[in-house]
Structure formats: structure tokens, C-alpha cells
Amino acid sequence: xxxxxxxxxxxxxxxxxxxxxxxxxxxxxxxxxxxxxxxxxxxxxxxxxxxxxxxxxxxxxxxxxxxxxxxxxxxxxxxxxxxxxxxxxxxxxxxxxxxxxxxxxxxxxxxxxxxxxxxxxxxxxxxxxxxxxxxxxxxxxxxxxxxxxxxxxxxxxxxxxxxxxxxxxxxxxxxxxxxxxxxxxxxxxxxxxxxxxxxxxxxxxx
Length: 206
Known about the structure:
Oligomer: single chain
CATH superfamily: Gcn5-related N-acetyltransferase (GNAT)
Shape: globular
Order of helices and strands: EEHHHEHEEHEHE
């Protein structure tokens, strides 16, 4: 085993600034949080992070059971923000996405149209630091679905959810070696706040 210090950046976004409209790419659907989706969020999280540097920084990402435990921990906290917690699912072109209905009814409608939620390819969760400050948790898109604007779509929808809760600022942390995520946040106007380091013991072969 060897000791590594992973450099991470804390970034912030001012929700008092205008938010771009949430544009869901054709062929995909954003699904709101419901407790019945916990296992599907865990599966999407594992697929997104399993082979990434963050699986070394946080070993829970390396296994499906670890991702399940993490999701359970997030959604049972008093400061969980369901409005900022979303799943991204591929859909056929003929699927009618319901609007202005409760999450359980939304999910039932998709399932009745043959949408397989277990094929979810992206996930994001939200927590409240306090009543004005939100925190993005674990934005992830599975490798085979990257490069289509899906991460931006999830992030924009989560930001809207934080704003709906009355928050005016959101923070997140990103591992500096996660170049794709870092570029996304920079392009979307997230501002640097501070540098932190995560000390982890990992195999020498890393």
C-alpha cells in the first residue's frame, strides 16, 4: 500500500445569477427522486465512478454495495434535498414524458410505456449545508453516455432544485485529476473557493 494525497477543489455557484434552461438531450429523460429509485441511483453511481479516479479517493464508489450504502446515507439525512436529486434515463423517441405530476405517478407513467429505469445512465444528489447553501453530491454519467451534454443537464436541473428550496449558493468538490468534470464546471461558471487534500491508502500499482 502507498499513501496518496489527492488534490481537490471546492467550487461555488451563485444561484442569484440567471440559470440556463434545462435542456434534456433527445432520447433521454430526467426522473425526479423517489425512494423506490434508491437501488437504481446506486447502480448508475457505480457505473459512473467504478473506473474513475474518484473510486480511489472514495472507495465506496468501487463497489455496487458501497454505492448503495452511500445513497442510503445521503437520502436518510435530515438535510437531504430531493428537489436536487435526479436520475437520467434513456427513452425511445415515442415515449411521452409526463409533466406536473407527483414523482410516483411520473415513474409509473414511464414504466407503463416500457421505459426501463434500471438502464439509468446518470445520477446527481443534493444536500443542504444550511437554508441558503446547497451542496452537490456525486454527479455521475456512465462512460458510454458521455460527451452528449448529460452531465450539464443533470447539474442544471439540480441547481434549479436548490433554487426552488430558496437557496442562493451551491458548492461542490471535484478531484483535480477528474479533468472532464473540472472543465465542465469551469465552462458553466463555477468559481474556485479553496484547495483541499484527501489522504488515501491505495495499491502501489495505481
